[in-house]
Amino acid sequence: MYGPNITDTGLLHISNLDFGDPARKHEMHCRFKQRPPLPWTAILASVGILVITLLLGHIFHAAVNRIAKVEDDFRKMEDLKSRAEAADRAKSQFLATVSHEIRTPMNGVLGMLQMLMDTDLDANQQDYAQTAHDSGKDLISLINEVLDQAKIESGRLELETVPFNLRTILDNVLSLFSGKSCEKGIELAVYVSYQVPEVIIGDPGRFRQTITNLVGNSIKFTNDKGHVFVSVHVVDELWVGPLGVGDEVLRQGPSNTLSGFPVVNRWKSWENFKILNSTEEKIRLLVTVEDTGVGIPLDAQSRIFTPFMQADSSTSRTYGGTGIGLSVSNCLVNLMEGEIGFVSEPGIGSTFSFTAAFGIGEMISQETKWQKNEISVSEFEGLRALVVDGRTIRAEVVRYHLRRLGISVDVAFSLEYACSYISSSCNGSESAHVAMVLVDRDSWSIETDPTFHNLLEEFRELSRTKYPECPPKIFLLSKTLSSTECHELKSAASVDGIILKPLRLSILVACFQEALGIGKKKLSLSNKRKLPTLENLLKGKRILVVDDNKVNRRVAEGTLKKYGAFVLCVESGKAAIPMLEPPHNFDACFMDLQMPEMDGFEATRQIREMEYKFNEKIEGGEASREMFGNVGSWHTPILAMTADLIQANNEECMKCGMDDYVSKPFEEEQLYSAVARFYQSG
Length: 682
Known about the structure:
It is a single chain. By secondary structure, the protein is an alpha/beta fold. Strands 3, 4, 5, 6, 7, 8 and 9 form a seven-stranded mixed sheet that branches. A five-stranded parallel sheet has the order 11-10-12-13-14. The protein has a five-stranded parallel sheet with strand order 16-15-17-18-19. The termini are far apart.
């Protein structure tokens, strides 16, 4: 090979050369002075393919593992869900069982105590029995609150949608707490704005429960002074602010209050609400409960709506309660599409406010129409009254109640103005004639201002001559008044009537009727139907009671017999079926739900099946109506009796053919509501 000798690089290439002579062999040896470059493109492509392959393998492996993990997690979630549902069912069943087991004997206790109180007892015995009965009702109330909390947590609490009169509900709440407020010397009052519709659509029971919880707490934590004031407004009234608002109650500041004691600023209780407006379909109401109680400690305000939590450990010992009422109220407000808030200062008091959305009912519902046509109410329309009270809010409360009766009201905030008004009324026209003067106890004192009392006497004498058919009447408004003071005032003929607070429509009507002497004669001559009572509805009715518990049967039998019903009792659903097979002579059946061998649901289904087959025979001509008292269609009213409030709902009862239900122990109001659907008073 030609060329200089160089170090062997190892890059030797040998080529064979053939010159055509087979005897001679030639080779050409070639050496390269430089190494050839590496095939990076091929290498990189190979590496890339390898990486991509590894990544795809990893992705595929991860996807398979992820799918397996998701499937495993799904199976675990399904298992946990099944366990949670089973636990929820077990809890609900446990609560239902505990409720039934507690309420069943309590039904016997309360029923027997009520029957005992209906007997001839002396004063001490009556007091002992009444105390035991009240304690039993407190226990039932506690059980109901716990069950409400359980139903809310499980999402099984549903609201009704029925028309109702909000003002009537508030009157009932006042009646419920009137005794406690008078006992503690607390002024209790309600005010409803004139912009609130007469009839709204919602759940009256849950609305009343929420207000009852808040008012009950206020009275419980308010000592022997001050007031508890409930007010209701439409949220749209708040838009102009406290200074520009038209409602007198909303415009008043914390110093001008119902009782004169300072309160917290109510406007702060709803300042964090997100929705403060009504819509075309629904009206949003603002309900405020104001008190002058002990207030809530600052460190406890963050947990006030937590179930079973109270301000401190001594609260339940000092005031009683379980700390569940506010939690239930909070949940109920949320169900009513509202919000709840509060403001509280220790030593001054608390104000709780909540909003709720309601439908707007017809201006004249059946209940409202009946009230409007009632003589005892309509007879007051067009009368004129003077209210003498130095406190603005208290005078507005009286004005609100009088305007419900159609009475025109003027307010005198001082005795000087009252004297001037009375003097001008004496010399005025007939249209300015004052039919009644209502004076608050705080403004009534002969020693303080004898001129006012002398002028009142002159006014009465002059009016008797000028308007002999309708002389003016003087009424004294007081939250408490001893029997001695009442006797002295009436014997001295200083007043024509004494109206004890809290003011309610029924109290005003009764007092005005007695003093003015109107309505009674026309009521006796009128052809109007009397308000039905349980005795009117049940008298002479034949009722079958089905219950496996002997004590409960005795209680139900005694309660129904008290109202004039003929009662027959059986101890099982199986025994009730042949007795209710058409034709029979029972007017109704009270059916227990939980019974051995055959529960009330199954017994009702079989009874309805028998009635259906019998009605088919009548329609088909196989049976004659004349043979069975001209009954064209057999349907015996069946009312469920249950101590289990969780299961006792309309849907479950209606599914099996029941018509309604009553809870144990019997409450007269609920029993009346259920029975009134089927019977008219005699």
